[in-house]
Design brief:
Pfam families: G-alpha. One of its GO terms (molecular function) is GTP binding. By secondary structure, this protein is α/β, with parallel strands linked by helices. It has four domains: 222 residues, no CATH class; 145 residues, no CATH class; 211 residues, 3-Layer(aba) Sandwich (Rossmann fold), CATH 3.40.50.300; 129 residues, GI Alpha 1, domain 2-like. Strand 5 and strand 6 form a beta hairpin. The structure holds guanosine-5'-triphosphate and magnesium ion.
């Protein structure tokens, strides 16, 4: 028996003598062939030392500047006896890392061990985030068993991912490990004398591999560091500490809730992991993300590449973090997020001139004087001579630093041009050719031009410089019109700096109050929202402005289309009338001839063709798709159309066209200017534009009221008064997104003030509801108001009623009495006769009375529902002052709430209506 056993022993053991063999333990295993068992059979899979993670801490900067690469050594294989197998589905084995003693090294980022109390007492002091030594701090680690590269977690799929097929266990990608160990070897072997470039080249493959390991999904949550079962008194972990938490069943997690405590909802403020997208509420974020050495990542996601779709948000701190960290700490975290190696763009997913970049090339590209803006993964072309840079098959979008040694040589078809004109070997696009022609560059005979970095150009093979592109007059304007780039030196840097300043100034202040703006369709909520942005200098970004411009131009074409459709109708009516008259007159008459001729609404053949085309595009629903090309191609036709008599005759009857919104006049009056390529929307244009804020979504803007300028007549302003620097968040929500019976209002439980917006002109307007019943819009507003006021979430909220479109009320009352609305039937003010010269003031006072009456109706309703006081303000949303006053009134209401005993009256209070002001 002993000799048989000995034959199984390793060679070194074969020398055991007969005496020693009794000191060796043996056990026998037999294959089980009985009936299936009902319990899980535990499996212990040995730890593979090659798969234990090590830190890859090579930063881009260190590659270039610091040649000694810090390395964290891999941990040694630990004793199996101290491991504990996590409980889980029997078919999966778990590799469990050592959590005691040296096993702590596994956690590359110590976890912040900050109690709320500590934070309160310690807040604001010291720059570095406080870090515990790891022992005795939070929870358990778990890693998913797969690395999902194409991983984009939508709000709805987040939970599915969380609870999906990933089983628990600690398993680190061997891929990542290999790359890391190569890095370590490299770092150990690399002496300080190696050149930067050599290092970049040697390590790039390793880094590429590590970056390839992709993103991952968290499958475990973390224990509460304060819960008693985490640490024993000596700071060592208790047995329970290494129990990996089971994923929570899908049904247990509410959509949009926190990934750790599973509380909250879609609207609860959360911070998301830039790797896996897991979102945590403010109570859990520190526990889930620790000290954030690589920025906002779950503890388990540290060391993993970020989700590329989140690259744009790197370094942009959230309001929640601002509340949780001191300024200094937050700046450090954001710096780490931007600069740590793991969060850098993986070079191999950026290709230039058909070749994926190496690390060295990417470093070069990103650190040049004028790098590509917001570089994302993708395929780009780069003209090294001129610095032109663009996406493959597209026209240039930027001019970056020239002569960078990145990518392959440029190819002729890089930008998919079809003009036979070449710049530095690339066939240019139509727009570029147009730009050259407009700038006065001779392009006859399809020249092959050589353009250098400073814009000087010459024909290939010729010595003489023909001119300098960027010195041409109007070149800035031409490029802007054709969406072509200009060198950064020519850009208006001041504007950008101002915008940045506004943003950073704002970011330093605290958000205190949330204002919820809600109202029925067309009540004016989005106009008030836009007005707030304009008033309080929240800039529309360049992209936003561009989109708004296309939106305005699209709307203009839509208005023209409605007019052209009306024109066809008017023309047809005219013909019918002629026919009728012709038939009614026996014998030959002049009508017979007129029928065959054009009438007052007819268009020329060219304009008729344009009209047919536009109506067809509108019918197909593709109007948006023709922009921005339409502005270039058809601006002259729009100009001709506006001068056309037939169109003018139609325009003069535009009030008959019900589909044409009132606001159309504003834009149609300036149609020629707006349809031009170089049109830039003014703030007023933006305000009037329909469709900028999505009708159904929730939009939010943060602002603070500017400090009032001091003048001799006012009381001195106390700039140290914190109220002056309070920040406000205006959240605009459309009722359609509140669900049946406004059930989603509970999402807004932390709102401080509800701004309920009603259009004063709704009293004689109707809409058809989902049941096909015609309803008065004012009654619809009343019903919505009732639903919101009586919603349990808003039981204690203050309300400010915004009675909007006051400017239109005056006009409307002349045509339709307020008593048209069944709710306002008792409004019969006695109006004394006024001579014509006092007529206007008379009408104004009628509008004022009507406004007061409506305000009081709502106040009484509010009182009957809540026994509280409703604040009311009259607003004309298109006027900045009016919205400013209303929002400042809102601020006052909040201040009163804070300092109840203090009676505060200022001029704004006159906007409020007391219940006693009855009709
Ligand atoms: N004259 C005038 N027009 C206004 C006023 N407020 C809003 N409007 C216009 O009324 C229309 C509807 O305003 P919006 O701000 O889009 O209304 P909304 O609440 O967003 O309504 P939806 O878009 O249906 O959600 C727009 O054409 C505005 O330009 C106002 O005080 N006076
Ligand atoms: Mg709107």
């Amino acid at each position: 028996m002993a000799s048989i056993l000995r034959s199984f022993m390793p060679v070194s053991s074969s020398k055991i003598d007969d005496h020693d063999e009794y000191s060796v333990d043996y056990s026998f295993a037999m294959e089980y062939s009985g009936p299936a068992v009902s319990y899980d059979i535990p499996q212990v899979v040995p730890v593979d030392v090659h798969r234990i993670p090590t830190a890859a801490v090579v930063s881009m900067a260190s590659m270039l500047n610091n040649l000694s690469l810090p390395v964290i050594q891999p941990i040694v294989k630990s004793d199996h006896s101290s491991k504990k197998v996590a409980k889980g589905p029997s078919k999966v084995g778990y590799e469990v890392a050592e959590f005691r003693g040296s096993g702590r090294k596994l956690r590359q980022n110590p976890v912040v061990d900050v109690t709320d109390q500590e934070r309160a007492t310690d807040g604001g002091e010291g720059c570095a985030p406080r870090v515990s030594n790891g022992t005795g701090s939070s929870g358990t680690l778990g890693f998913s068993d797969s690395h999902d590269e194409s991983h984009e977690i939508s709000e709805s799929s987040e939970i599915e991912e969380l609870n999906g097929v990933h089983e628990l266990g600690v398993e680190i990608s061997s891929h990542a490990h290999q790359a890391n160990s190569q890095l370590e070897e490299h770092s150990l072997n690399t002496s300080a004398s190696s050149s930067e470039v050599a290092i970049c080249e040697e390590v790039e493959d390793c880094v590429n591999e590590t970056s390839n390991c992709g993103n991952r999904t968290p499958v475990v949550t973390f224990r509460d560091p304060h819960s008693s079962d985490i640490t024993s008194e000596d700071g060592r972990l208790d047995e329970q500490d290494i129990v990996v938490e089971r994923p929570v069943a899908r049904s247990d997690v509410k959509k949009g809730s926190c990934y750790r405590c599973f509380k909250g909802n879609r609207f609860t403020e959360k911070e998301g992991c830039i790797v896996c997208g897991a979102k945590y509420c403010s109570n859990c974020v520190l526990r889930a993300m620790g000290t954030m050495p690589e920025g906002r990542k779950c503890v388990t996601c540290i060391g993993y590449a970020i989700d590329e779709s989140k690259r744009g948000s790197l370094g942009k701190s959230s309001r929640m973090l601002k509340k949780l960290f001191t300024d200094c700490e937050l700046k450090q975290i954001m710096r780490n997020e931007i600069s740590c190696e793991k969060n850098q763009l993986p070079p191999n997913i950026v290709s230039v001139n058909g070749r994926p970049l190496s690390v060295r090339e990417l470093v070069l590209l990103q650190n040049c004087r004028n790098p590509p803006k917001k570089l994302k993964p993708g395929r780009y072309w780069y003209d090294k001579e001129s610095g032109f840079w663009g996406k493959e098959s597209q026209q240039p979008c930027q001019i970056i630093s020239p002569r960078l040694d990145v990518g392959d040589p440029i190819q002729k078809n890089a930008s998919n041009g079809n003009t036979n004109v070449l710049i530095n070997g690339r066939e240019i696009t139509k727009n570029e050719l147009l730009m050259l022609k407009m700038a006065g560059v001779h392009c006859e005979g399809y020249p092959h031009l050589w353009v250098s970095a400073n814009g000087s150009y010459q024909e290939e093979g010729q010595k003489n410089v023909m001119g300098k592109l960027w010195d041409k007059s109007r070149i800035k304007f031409i490029c802007a019109a054709l969406s072509l780039p200009i060198p950064s030196e020519l850009c208006d840097e001041e504007v950008e700096k101002d915008a940045e300043k506004v943003c950073s100034d704002d970011a330093d202040q605290k958000v205190v109050n949330k204002l919820l703006l809600v109202g029925c369709d067309q009540s004016g909520t989005s106009t008030i929202f836009k007005q707030a942005k304009i008033l309080y200098n929240v800039p529309f970004s360049g992209d936003e402005r561009q989109n708004i411009k296309y939106m305005i131009q699209t709307n203009l074409y839509r208005y023209i289309g409605i007019l052209l459709e009306g024109r066809e109708q008017f023309e047809e009516d005219c013909l019918l009338e002629l026919r009728r008259q012709y038939l009614s007159q026996p014998g030959p008459s002049a009508y017979a001839q007129q029928i065959g001729e054009k009438n007052a609404y007819s268009l020329s053949q060219k304009l008729k063709a344009f009209s047919d085309w536009l109506l067809q595009v509108m019918m197909s629903g593709n109007l948006e798709a023709i922009f921005p090309a339409a502005t270039r191609e058809y601006a002259p036709l729009v100009e001709d159309l506006l001068k056309d008599k037939g169109f003018q005759a139609t325009y003069s009857r535009r009030n008959e066209l019900l589909l044409l919104p009132r606001v159309a006049n504003y834009f149609l009056d300036r149609a020629v200017e707006i349809s031009r390529v170089d049109y830039e929307p003014s703030d007023m244009d933006i305000l009037y534009t329909e469709g900028i804020t999505s009708s159904n979504g929730v939009a939010s803007v943060e602002f603070s009221f500017p400090m009032p300028s001091q003048d001799g007549y006012m009381e001195p302003i106390d700039h140290s008064d914190p109220i002056m620097s309070y920040r406000y968040q205006l959240i605009r929500v459309h009722p359609s997104s509140l669900g049946e019976n406004c059930k989603w209002l509970e999402m807004f439980e932390d709102v401080d003030l509800v701004l309920f917006c009603v259009s004063l002109t709704d009293y004689d307007e109707y809409y058809v509801n989902s049941d096909g019943v015609c309803k008065n819009k004012m009654i619809a507003s009343k019903n919505l108001f009732r639903s919101i006021v009586t919603h349990p979430t808003f039981a204690q909220k203050d309300f400010l009623l915004i009675l909007n479109k006051f400017d239109l009320l005056e006009e409307k009352l002349k045509q339709v009495p307020l008593s048209q609305c069944e709710w306002f039937q008792e409004f019969n003010p006695l109006m004394s006769y006024h001579p014509p010269d006092r007529q206007r003031s008379n009408n104004t006072s009628l509008a004022q009375r009507a406004f007061h009456y409506i305000g009081v109706k709502f106040k009484r309703l509010f009182d009957s529902l809540s026994e509280r006081k409703l604040y009311v303000s009259s607003v004309t949303a298109l006027e900045g002052d009016s919205v400013d006053k209303a929002l400042k009134y809102g601020r006052e209401i909040l201040n009163w709430k804070e300092e109840k005993p203090r009676v505060c009256v200022n001029e704004l209070s006159f906007e409020s209506i007391e219940a006693s002001t009855s009709s």
